[in-house]
Amino acid sequence: MRRSRGPGGVLSRLVHGALAVALAATALTAAGALTTTTAANAADGDPFDPDRAAVFLAQDRPTTLYRAAQVGADLTFVAEGTAAVPYNAIGYNTVDNYLYGVQQDTQRLLRIGQGGAAMDLGAITGLNVDSYYQQGTFGAGDSANTLYVRGTLDLGTVYAIDLTTRVATPITLSEEVPNTSDLVALEGYLWGMGNDSRIWRVDLDSGAAGSWETNVPAVTYGGQWVYGNGNLGLSANDSGDVIQLGITNATSANPTFTILSTVNGPTPNSNNDATSNPGPDVDLAIQKTVRSAHTPGGSITFGIHVTNNSAVASSGYYFQDELPASLTNPSSPNTECSFVGNLMTCAYGTMAPGEQRNFEVTATAPNSIDPITNTVTVTGNENDPNLDNNTATVTTSPDYAPGVSVVKSAALDDGAVFAEGSTLEYSFLVTNTGNTDLTAITIDEGDFTGTGELGEISCPGTALASGASATCTADYTLTQADVDAGGVTNTASATGTPPLTPPITSVPSTFDYEDEADDALTVVKTATPASSGTVGQEITYRFAVTNTGGTTLTGVTIDDGDFSGSGDLSAIECPATTLAPGATTTCTATYVLTQTDVDAAGVTNTATATATPPGGGTVDSPPSSVTVQTPDAPAMTLVKSADPTEASAVGDTIAYGLALTNTGNVTLTGVHVDETSFSGSGEISAITCPTTTLAPGATTTCAATYTLTQADVDNGGVTNTAIGGGTPPGGGVIETPPSTVTVDAPEDPSLTVTKTASPVGAAAGNAVTYSFLVTNTGNVTVDEIAIVDEDFSGTGELSAISCPATTLAPDASTTCTATYTLTQADVDSGALHNGATVFGNTPTDGEVDSPPSEVEVELPPNPSLSVVKTATPASVDNAGAEVTYSFLVINTGNVTLDGVAVQEQDFTGTGELSEIVCPTTTLAPTAQTTCTATYELTQADVDAGGVTNVATATGNPPGTDGPVTSPPSETTVGSEPAPGLSVVKTSSPASVATAGDVITYGFLVTNTGNVTLSDVVPVEGEFSGTGELSEIECPANTLAPGEDVTCTATYAVTQEDVDAGGVTNVATATAIPPDTTTGGGTPVEAPPSETEVDVPAAPGLTLVKTADVDRITSAGDQVLFSFLVTNTGNVTLGDLSIADSEFTGTGELGEIVCPADVLAPAESVTCEATYGVTQADVDAGLLSNAATAVGTPPGDVPPVDSPPSQVDIDAPHAPSLTLVKTSDVQTVTAVGQVVTYNFLAINTGNVTLTGMVITEGTFSGAGDVSEVFCPQDSVLPGEEVVCTATYTVQEADLTGASLSNTATATATPPGDGDGGGDPITSDPSTTESGSESPDAALPTTGSQAAWVFALAAVVLLLMGGALVFLRHSRRGADEVLPR
């Protein structure tokens, strides 16, 4: 019988289970092999603590969730718990503090809580079903509740999953982004590190993607996250190393990337993913101190203090101290610190609020006095709101102070005087003023005014102890320069070398030695040359200066005192300005004689020398004088000129120039010019001179003017002679030689004539008056003036030319005249040409003539024509009628026209007009002629409403190349149009089957009227189609009367058309007849034409049923059935439903949920249902499910069923049975004592066992064990049954030996078919009881230990039973545990 599952049954299971476990534990303990296994705490699925920053790592299949823990410099991960399914693409949601991820293979949304417990929230829709999703993160701000994921195949897409609807919305990327293994969100962007060192950034708003090279190693990073401090965490799949990567200017076009730290982490296995809870801000501060002062080469110790200034704990931090390279042997007593060279890295884990951690580092200082600067920086895992206190720097210097001083003095040797060659002895007192010994003591001379060489400095030693002194000495021999200077000044410093530092130098010490000496100076002045009468002669002065004193004189200069020269003496140059005693220097200066100096008969000069003695002040020489003599030599010239040199007109002014030049060497005064002879008939002006004093070489130009008279011109010019004079400084007058100039006046006769004609009309008989303006343009009178007419084109006779005067003075004019009457030939020629020349005689009997003068009288012709056009008949009804055109041409001008012709201009006829025939082509003025032509009207002319004709007449006037054209003349022949149109619409094919089939429509349009129609267009009327008809194409859009054209259009049938059963189409056609007034008539429309295309309905449906597992192993397993329904017909199906036809499951199948109940043709939908496996299903070995899909077509078509689809899920049997045998007596003591044996049989397999029996094996008892009684023979998986048997102790059993009993349990599992399977047998189980001998009470060895073991086993089993009870209770509450 089956056991009850009520409360009594549970309690019974607890008791029996506890007993069995206790017995098993006792047995193992007795065998010395008892082991204890601690089970993981059951996950309660609570959200994670938001105030506890954490890095989560998910690995393996099924997936285990780990939490990072920092221990020293290593990062370890502690398991939170393992889910029943694999998942990836996890992200931490700061909204509810859960992790969310995507279940692998099924694309279901999971929520993961504490302990790694995963809750299935349902399937995600919208993802790429072929992609494996391994990248995930949550956004921030408005997208904080959105999970962003990417899969292995989503190179150009990121999906945003709404947690509420589980709908994934694709975000299209601007370019394909390679697989980056994971995603993180930072500053509004998604970031992912590729396996090629390139990091990618995606803009969530626009999908813009970009990438940059980094120095991160090129490996695969399966786990990526963001620390609270804003840095990226990267977990390398190959090594487990964790890199902390900083991003600067993350939102800019050019962000930069820096590896901040690399720590050791666990090596991932598979399915590696990570995310993080950034946690609250944590303010970490660091301080650095120096424990004590150090000495060069001694030990130095730094203290480092890290403090958590926040109200929340820090999850971990590290700091790095790059010790200066000068420090050696670094060490630290803190085990959290390690060294790589001089780089100390200290890492520490959790730090409570307000807690301070203290660290030390000790090193050996260099043997140097250089200061030591050390900087340390701390970095926490969380965001630090105050970075100002994250870095600390300390600088320290050793205690070290060397010093040195020097005092300098000097004195002459005993008995020596202050003179050149005397010896001056110097002393240098050197003292060590520091706290260290000095070596290499030296004296360094600084500023020394002596001009000689100081002797070698001698010191008694080169080393000085602290506080010691020594005197060094040196000798110096005085030079003349030193004596001149009045003494010497000397500065020196002392240098010594401390033991550990570079040499030091004292403050300089200066000593002045002073004395005095006598001074004297002379100068002698000379001049070269001593005499000269030439202005500009350079005189060289020499000044011989001699130092007649006993000291060197400096700053020697010459002071020119009395100097009679009127010019400037040059600067006096001295080759030397310093003179030793007895030395001489000759200074020089130059002077250029002026005219004043020459006029004055000489130049006198006096000078004095001055110098500065060494003691200061000045010393002057006695004066020295010299005189240069200058003799006189007066002389003078005159050059006379005239401007112009040639004059040809009366009244011309002649300007005379008289250039006087002083050619002597003295200045002349009273300079003047006198005229001696003049040929002019007029009066010359007075001679004026700009100056009357001339220096030697100077020139002055005096001036006079004269106006030319007619007599001067008649004489051919004027001649003028003059002399000049002046007074030298010595008195008397000197004169120039005479100077003559002649101005010529050449004869230049000239005449001009200008011929003009009075205006006249271009008509025969009109008179033309000619005028001839004659002008004397020469400089002499001309007489016997006469006009000669030349090149006269007139055909008549010109009258005689009449002149009022025949003699003309220069510039005088006279006008001669003549007249002429025009002939018709003159007018016909279009112009009258005439030329003339004037002739006359000069006073010297010469002849002069003018250039010819021509005049052209324009006689423009005025040709003109007119034409009048008529047509007969004026109106026609049919094409082909002949019209006769007449053109009346009249010569309305004043000249005869030839080549008369008529030209058609605007002619609307579409045919050919005949040749226009004129009876004559020459017309005299007022003459006329009538030309004719014929024309046959075309259909186009009739369509146009008639023909309009415009014509002009042309003729050629005489003497021109171009014809004259008449105004146009127009005539019109009218016609009346009668338009008409029809259309016939057809379709091909007449019937279609599916959406997308193309129908070709034909529109046969015919012109049924009598005029040509244009813009022929078929027009769609009523159209039942739900799609868009293509544009209607016509091979021609113009039709003549009786012509037709077939236009076509295509239409792709839509699903709505198919569902409606067909498409109906009505069309008309329109066209535009001609209009003679506006160019387009009123449109004409054809009667409508209709066609219909049928679409027979052909519904169809298929179903493919699948399951998310291919096998089940135990009751409680969850199976997700999927039903892929596809519309294989040509019409839309509604009211979609799934009918489960054959289902072998013994439980209740969940509701079948379909996301849509309407399917268009070729569309599919996947419905889902879940099922909890029962034990009966497992026992059956197979779970089978068949289903059929049903849909309703549009209209009156009955519903359609799909063929059934079946899925089979294996339930492999794994039967197993265990047996634990015990007895209620530890030791048998008397005959007849009853021993009760208990047989605890446990079904440890996964199928129900039936027919269970207990079989006794080896038994050492002398009697028989009773039949084994079992309360039931059917056992469910995990169920226990306690069977019993008894044994009565026999006398033979009381031997002191053990009473041993062995048994096995046998049961039958279900078979694969209708029958049972092969029986299975448990391993044998043995129990032993001690016995007493019949003659003595034997001690009970080991009984206390056994009972202790048994008691412990019972306690353990009771605990285990409680866990079993809780497990089954939870299963009852949750129904299904996570897989």
TrEMBL record:
Keyword Transmembrane: yes
Keywords: Membrane, Signal, Transmembrane, Transmembrane helix
Transmembrane parts of this sequence: 1345-1366
Domain DUF7507: 401-506, 520-621, 633-735, 749-850, 862-966, 978-1077, 1098-1200, 1214-1312
Ranges of residues in domain DUF6923: 56-279
Bias type Low complexity, positions: 1300-1311
Superkingdom: Bacteria
Region of interest (Disordered), ranges: 606-626, 953-978, 1071-1093, 1300-1339
Domain DUF11: 283-395
A Pfam family assignment: DUF11
Cross-referenced InterPro entries: Chlamydia_OmcB, DUF11_rpt, DUF6923, DUF7507, OmcB-like_DUF11
Signal peptide: 1-42
Protein's recorded name: DUF11 domain-containing protein
